[in-house]
Amino acid sequence: MVRNLSPIVEHKGKVREGKGFSKAELIAVELTLGRAKSLGLPVDQKRGSSHDENVEALKEFIKGAKDLDIKVSKPKMKTGKTHVGRAYRGRTSAGQKVKGLRKARGLQKVKGSRKVKGNQGIKSSRKN
Prior knowledge:
The chain has a domain at 8-68. It is mainly alpha-helical. The longest helix has 22 residues, at 93-114. The protein has helices at residues 23-28, 33-38, 52-68, 93-114, and strands spanning 8-11, 14-17. A two-stranded antiparallel sheet has the order 1-2.
């Protein structure tokens, strides 16, 4: 039994290897799209033509698959957050400038929220 099946496609008289089996070929073998994908068969949904060689290859594959009870597992999905990289703002002159600007902007925000109106709360060292 061939595990890696590839369909044959004819285009302008030339025979080449296709992307996947067409819907018509799957219907001829009484396979659904979902079942074909679960068996690991390539499916080309755009192609509408049907070739006898592909139908025969599918029939042979299905006979072998029923004997061995082949099931293809789904690809594992990554879980969790992906790492988000940062631009290097280290010991370069540009990095130092940006670092200083960020600190200054942060201080302005803090000072703005803590401002007291008028002379309330301001202690001066001067004596009147």
